[in-house]
From TrEMBL:
Protein keywords: Hydrolase, Lipid biosynthesis, Lipid metabolism
Signal sequence region: none
Source superkingdom: Bacteria
Name of this protein: ACP phosphodiesterase
Pfam families: ACP_PD
Gene Ontology terms, MF aspect: [acyl-carrier-protein] phosphodiesterase activity
Bilayer-spanning residue ranges: none
GO biological process: fatty acid biosynthetic process
Length: 194
C-alpha cells in the first residue's frame, strides 16, 4: 500500500502514523532507535506490505504491470490501491478525505524531529502538493506514477504505467474491492496485538 492507506491504517494514533509513514526509510534493526509506539508503526507498515504482497488479488493485479515494469509492478499497484481507497465512499467522502489529509500532515509535523532525513526532505512536497488528497484524482495518480519512475533506478517511462492503469481501471478497482476489507481487518488486529 502507499501513503494514504498506511496513514488510514494507523487508526488515528499519531505515533503509529509517524512510524507507518516513514517506515520505508528505516532499514532492518534501525527500528530499535525509535520510541516504542513509533516502532509499532514501523512494524505495522512492514506487516501491511507483506500481507498486501502475498494477497491473491494483489498477485493477480501485478500481472497488469509486470510485462513492462517487472519488480516495480508492486509499486504501481500500491499507488492504484490508494486511488481506489481515496474514492471508496465507505471510507471517505470528499470532505472527510480532505479533513483526514490535513490531520495527517498536522500530526506528522509534530514528529518531524524523529523522521529519517529522506522523509523530512520529501514531506514538505507531500504536504504542499497534498498527495494524500490528490490520490483521488487521476492526475494525482499520473504524478505518483511519475514519482515511482523518478525514484527507480532503471525506469524512464511512466506514461505506459498510466495507460495500463486507465485501460484496466475497472479490473484494478475490483482487485482493490476483493483485497482491502481483508487488509483493514488484518491491520486492525495486528495493531491490537502488538
Amino acid at each position: 500500500m502507499n501513503y494514504l492507506a498506511h496513514a488510514y491504517l494507523s487508526f488515528n494514533q499519531p505515533p503509529i502514523l509517524a512510524g507507518n509513514l516513514f517506515s520505508d526509510f528505516v532499514k532492518g534493526k534501525q527500528v530499535n532507535q525509535y520510541p516504542e509506539e513509533v516502532q509499532k508503526g514501523i512494524l505495522l507498515h512492514r506487516a501491511i506490505d507483506s500481507f498486501t504482497d502475498e494477497h491473491a488479488a494483489t498477485r493477480e493485479a501485478k500481472n497488469i504491470f509486470k510485462p513492462h515494469y517487472r519488480l516495480y509492478s508492486a509499486a504501481f499497484i500500491d499507488v492504484s490501491y490508494d486511488h481506489f481507497l481515496a474514492n471508496d465512499w465507505q471510507q471517505f467522502t470528499d470532505d472527510s478525505l480532505s479533513e483526514f489529509s490535513q490531520q495527517v500532515y498536522d500530526s506528522l509535523d509534530k514528529y518531524l524531529d524523529l523522521c529519517p532525513e529522506p522523509f523530512k526532505r520529501m514531506f514538505p512536497y507531500m504536504k504542499q502538493q497534498n498527495w494524500l488528497y490528490n490520490y483521488r484524482n487521476r492526475s494525482g495518480i499520473e504524478k505518483s506514477f511519475a514519482g515511482v519512475v523518478h525514484r527507480a533506478a532503471y525506469l524512464t517511462d511512466s506514461q505506459t504505467a498510466f495507460k495500463l492503469f486507465e485501460d484496466n481501471y475497472h479490473k484494478l478497482q475490483q482487485y482493490y474491492a476483493d483485497f482491502f476489507p481483508a487488509l483493514h481487518q488484518f491491520a486492525y488486529h495486528r495493531l491490537q496485538n502488538m
